[in-house]
Specification:
The chain is an alpha/beta fold and about 325 residues long. Helices cover about 20% and strands about 35% of the residues. Strands 14-13-16-11-9-19 form a 6-stranded mixed beta sheet. Strands 10-18-17-12-15 form a 5-stranded mixed beta sheet. A hairpin with a 2-residue loop joins β1 and β2. The longest helix has about 50 residues.
Length: about 325
């Protein structure tokens, strides 16, 4: 009797193992089919659609796992577009056809999702771009305003906290803006705890990826001229409430130039949203800007130097290149 029971138990175990292995093999085959289909989609968008799209501008963005400095002596591991966090600011003209080649040199699947208007092939929610693969997003730049881009692979909050985001600015085609000195500001969040990257309260809330950088490298504007700020919040938890000292400023809600501007003393920007601020100063001097609340005590603060000058701006001046070069210098100056 005991021998019979033992034999039955062994037979049952062998059948169970066989069934389990069969199920695992079926699942593996299904995953391979999904992966192959995903890569076929990548190829089709890269070849056929580009030829029909006829872009006027082509850009290459490379994702790499790297390490950057976010405050003096403080480095963290990141997933970075072109080696920086945030990635390079992208600026186009409304209606312009743009092809963005995304190359994933990281260890995990990633995408690039763009705020704005586009079809599902270029939305960045799918397909996932596997390590070692690439994908070309074809976009017609719209609408005019301050937008953003970021990875959209779940968990999205982790991919954003790891550094996969940047500013997307689209200039109006038929309605030129008044002359201004222009800067961009990407507010974000960094956790220094590698085991809890998405913890609710971050350790740093920098502007453009480096804590307090504009305390030592202030923004500058002449007295009476317009300072235009393109502000996006790439945090995942709390709004930033931007305040400029000694100025009541004009605000384009949600960063859309189609919205009528209104005046404000501070402007709250929710995670995943943006705003455009246009400000002037009556008096020359050294003024602060920051997000009201705990962020200003964790990296979100800087200076604006207002210079006494009788010469007025006649054309807009973009400071984007200066800002991005400064960011790269600060984030990588001790890299070996």
């Amino acid at each position: 009797m005991k021998a019979s029971l033992s034999y039955n138990c062994i037979l049952y175990s062998l059948v169970s193992i066989f069934l389990l292995l069969t199920i695992c093999q079926i699942v593996a085959l299904q995953q391979q089919e999904i992966y192959a289909e995903n890569q076929n989609n990548v190829s089709s968008n890269n070849i056929t659609d580009i030829e029909a799209f006829n872009p006027t501008k082509k850009i290459k963005i490379v994702l790499e796992d790297t390490e950057i400095e976010i405050a003096p002596g403080k480095k963290i591991k990141t997933w970075a577009f072109n080696g920086t966090v945030p990635g390079p600011p992208l600026r186009f003209t409304e209606g312009e056809n743009v092809s963005i080649l995304f190359v994933n040199k990281g260890l995990y699947p990633h995408t690039m999702h763009f705020h704005g208007i586009h079809d599902d092939k270029n939305d960045g929610a799918s397909p996932f771009i596997m390590p070692g693969k690439s994908y070309t997003y074809n976009l017609t730049a719209e609408p005019a305003g301050a937008l953003m881009y970021h990875c959209h692979v779940p968990p999205v909050s982790e991919h954003i906290r790891m550094g996969m985001y940047g500013a997307l600015i689209i200039d109006p085609k038929d309605k030129p803006l008044k002359p201004a000195k222009e800067y961009y500001m990407v507010s974000s969040e960094f956790s220094t705890d590698e085991k809890n990257v998405t913890k609710f309260l971050a350790d740093y809330y920098p502007i453009n990826g480096y804590a307090y950088q504009y305390m030592n490298y202030p923004l500058e504007i002449n007295q009476g001229d317009t300072l235009r700020l393109y502000i996006v919040n790439e945090g995942i938890t709390i709004p930033v409430s931007i305040h400029l000292h000694s100025s009541i400023f004009d605000v384009y809600q949600s960063g859309l130039l189609s919205n009528e501007p209104y005046q404000a003393q501070s402007i709250a920007v929710a995670p995943g949203d943006a705003t455009i601020v246009e400000a002037k100063w009556r008096y020359p001097g050294n003024y602060m800007f920051h997000s009201h609340g705990l962020q200003e005590e964790h990296g979100n603060m800087g200076h604006i130097i207002v210079k006494e000058n009788s010469t007025k701006l006649t054309d807009s001046i973009s400071m984007f290149d200066w800002q991005y070069e400064l960011q790269k210098k600060l984030q990588t100056h001790n890299s070996n």
